[in-house]
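Kindly review this record before class:
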Amino acid sequence: MFDFKKIIEEKQVDLVIFNNTLSPIQQRNLENYFDLKVIDRTNLILEIFGKRAKSHEGKLQVELAHLLYQKSRLVKTWTHLERQRGGFGFLGGPGETQLELDKRMLSQRIKKIKTMLLKVQNTRNIQHKNRLDNEIISVSIVGYTNAGKSTLFNKMLNENVFSKDMLFATLDPTRRIYKGSNHEKIIISDTVGFISDLPTELIESFKSTLEEISSSDIIIHVRDLSSPFMDQEAKDVYTILNNIDTEIQNKTIEIFNKVDLYDFDKNFSNLDNSEIFVSSTKGLGLEKISIKIQKILETNYIKIKLTLNGNSGFILNWLYKNSKVIEKKVNKHGNYKILINISRVNLERMKSKFTDAIVFN
């Protein structure tokens, strides 16, 4: 059996990290035994998230996660004071007073942050409603941490969002406009990476972000072909997302990234030729993603023929903004005959807006 204390002393280790959850008593006993700082998996993840958060919302979410983590560990924090008797009441003591004070302060701060996050969520809900009203399609890029989401995002949209070979390089969602081939208005979001056994404090804190992902019209799930744990990582991602929306896989596109690092000769039996393979760093296969998105969107579009009467210029302007004009001719009466590809939602809007000015052929 290894003598970890001896190894720690020989290597002059300053910090010990356990890849599991430690109870407050376990953490304290280990610190006393090793005579140095000891943290667990949750504490480490929270520290990383704290360094990555840049936006106001991200900082609030991380602070909330920290406070929920601290509150769950307060029970044993003041045991050294609970032995002191006297003070307030028969069984009271300074330790109990301090514990209750800390709990109350944490609870007040947690309540305040949740109120602030609720305002952010309400703003996001208004933005989501506006996107629906304006027929804007939302696409979210998700995946296990370090799967290459941000690099793919940059390549697809010709952006320069921070991306690096590191855990949780992206914490705050980034949104950009993406032009579809049928002139659809599409917003693509790069989101936070997932990890196995994500602390419950983080799931609670980032619930609004997860709900935004689930409300997307299309989800691009980026999977790392170079990872030996690719299938398990995919399960971890869906475990978290399914807690928000059990139907989420029905609108998900599976993208297998880092194809340039994959040995197909050794692993040919594990993959389907119909899957979408890309290399986000080299820009390979990205056109297949666009084609797949377009195929999904086309199921919500229909082709119709119209004859325009009245103020054709105004109607034409509206059609070019809200549909794809495939063909345009002028008949013998001087009226426009048009073939368009239009979404079902915009079709209903057109019918109500131009009731007497359009004849359906």
User: Anything to note?
Assistant: Residues 76-94 have pLDDT under 50 and may be disordered. The chain has 14 helices and twelve strands. The longest strand covers residues 136-143. The CA atoms of residues 74 and 100 lie 9 Å apart.
